[in-house]
Amino acid sequence: MPASSAARPPAGRPPAARRVERAPRPAFRCGECGWTTAKWVGRCGECQAWGSVAEDTGPGGAAPRTTATSPARTPAQPIGDIDVEAARARPTGVGELDRVLGGGLVPGAVVLLAGEPGVGKSTLLLDVAARAARGGRRVLYVTGEESAGQVRLRAERIRALDPNLLLAAETDLGTVLGHLEQVEPDLLVVDSVQTIASTLVDGAPGGVAQVREVAAALIAVAKDRDLPVLLVGHVTKDGSIAGPRTLEHLVDVVCQFEGDRHSRLRLVRATKNRYGPTDEVGCFDLSETGIVGLTDPSGLFVSHALHHVPGTCVTVTLEGRRPLATEVQALVAPSVLSNPRRTTSGVDSSRLAMVLAVLQRRVGARLVDQDVYVSTVGGARVVEPAADLALALATVSARENVPLLAGVVALGEVGLAGEIRPVAGVARRLSEAARLGFTHGVVPRGSVEPTAAPAGMTLHEVGDLAEAVLLSSGPRSRPA
């Protein structure tokens, strides 16, 4: 046998020299949703975000760890032996904010407050910080958008000066962490998370990588020290929170600060809350002297005029679990245009168009040649279907130039067939209306028991829109 044939490897087995380990292919990851791809693309194939795909510099393709890398700091305990007193919420001193948070701030909780520019986020958090400082807690307020002098002027204007309130104007994450080591505060406020940057991460402040790094570092400090942290977040053009979507998943509470630029009313809603409900709404009044919580905001949305005028009707909407009385005003005038105007303020234009079509078809109200203007009092925003009946009655009252019953409140959804559909929380809405002095309630038939009517209020149950128009227009009404 030749020597060459003896050194030849068996058939079907590759030579040892050909067993070459392939280098791992580079991976690219979307900073918004985490979608991965083998090559770079300008637009994410999952969330369709532009410019969010970058090379993943982390360890790719590594096998999952199956053993602990470090010993546990505290042993696992039975769930019944866990001390819950340390996790109790502590009030902030602002009752409306405590309502949204679920009782106050939980030690170690990270709260993200986002809103449009100029809506009052910094003013609210500075007031919260001052109240905590007056209560004996040490508060560190970090501002990255304004100078220390500007914050001091705002604090003087809203009377938020206190020796326990410490102020630092910083934009570097390492410096902020150094202030935390030096001050050891009981509450940390960062305004805002998009202005803080880390030198260990590439990118401009506010970028996806920077926001993720800053938020992760602050959350780690909050959990390690049981330190409540309040973060201010920017929003994009469409109103969503700027930065990676993972920011909302990392924090414990996400609150949206809403308000019209031309109104003093501000609303705070919790879109995520690990420690309380997400259906509560806090109402605030923003003025030059500060921001004040409104425990009874219904008076802002109801006209104080006692005389009856055509085209007005009051309904009660539910903002979360809070009932708010809102007055809907309508004006109907002859039109000289081929396409009459349909103008709304605070009311959904599509809902108005549907209600007008039902009135024309089912009730016989001639509106095809009339301009219709509908607005709410106080800048309130009415979007739920429970206001359909009040919208229809106000329009008919303005069209006929006949005022509705004195002290009437209308609740119900209007269907395309002209029927009045039940809505949720009728008893709670009627209780709020009775507290404000309303004596007549027009409600869908079967939505509430007659014996459950609030004291001093007469219920008028209706099944369709034509019946509701007859009942609410004066002495022809009959109690249920």
From TrEMBL:
One of its GO terms (cellular component) is cytosol. Residues 86-235 form the RecA family profile domain. ATP binds at residues 115-122. Keywords: ATP-binding, DNA damage, DNA repair, DNA-binding, Hydrolase, Metal-binding, Nucleotide-binding, Stress response, Zinc, Zinc-finger. Gene3D superfamilies: 3.30.230.10, P-loop containing nucleotide triphosphate hydrolases (3.40.50.300). A motif (RadA KNRFG motif) lies at residues 272-276. Residues 1-24, 55-78 are annotated as: Disordered. One of its GO terms (biological process) is recombinational repair. GO terms for molecular function: ATP binding; ATP-dependent DNA damage sensor activity; damaged DNA binding; hydrolase activity; zinc ion binding. Residues 371-480 are annotated as: Lon-protease-like. Residues 1-17, 62-78 have a biased composition (Low complexity). Belongs to the RecA family. RadA subfamily. Plays a role in repairing double-strand DNA breaks, probably involving stabilizing or processing branched DNA or blocked replication forks. The middle region has homology to RecA with ATPase motifs including the RadA KNRFG motif, while the C-terminus is homologous to Lon protease. HAMAP family: RadA_bact. This is DNA repair protein RadA. The gene is radA.
